[in-house]
Q: What sequence folds into this?
C-alpha cells in the first residue's frame, strides 16, 4: 500500500428520527492504493481512528437512537461537530 494515502474531508448533516436532534460531523476519507488490488477507502474520525462508514452506523448523541437520516450539510450552519454552537 502507499505510504501516504490520499485523503479528502467530508461533512455530513444528521437528523435523529426519534428526538429530532440535528448535528454535523466531519470525517476524513482515506484512499489507499495497492498495485494489483482494488483501491480501499476508509473513514477516520477527528482522532485519526478508523471507523465504519458514518452513513451506515450513525447514532444520535442525544438519545442513542439509530433512526438517523444523513444529508448534505447546510452552508454556514455555525454548529460544532456534535450539533452544538462552537465555543
A:
Amino acid at each position: 500500500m502507499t505510504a501516504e494515502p490520499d485523503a479528502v474531508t467530508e461533512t455530513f448533516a444528521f437528523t435523529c428520527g426519534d428526538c429530532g436532534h440535528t448535528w454535523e460531523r466531519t470525517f476524513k476519507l482515506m484512499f489507499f492504493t495497492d498495485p494489483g488490488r482494488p483501491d480501499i477507502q476508509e473513514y477516520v474520525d477527528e482522532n485519526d481512528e478508523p471507523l465504519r462508514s458514518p452513513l451506515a452506523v450513525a447514532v444520535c448523541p442525544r438519545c442513542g437512537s439509530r433512526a438517523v437520516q444523513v444529508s448534505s450539510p447546510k452552508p454556514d450552519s455555525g454548529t460544532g461537530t456534535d450539533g452544538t454552537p462552537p465555543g
Q: What stands out?
A: The two ends are 39 Å apart (CA to CA).
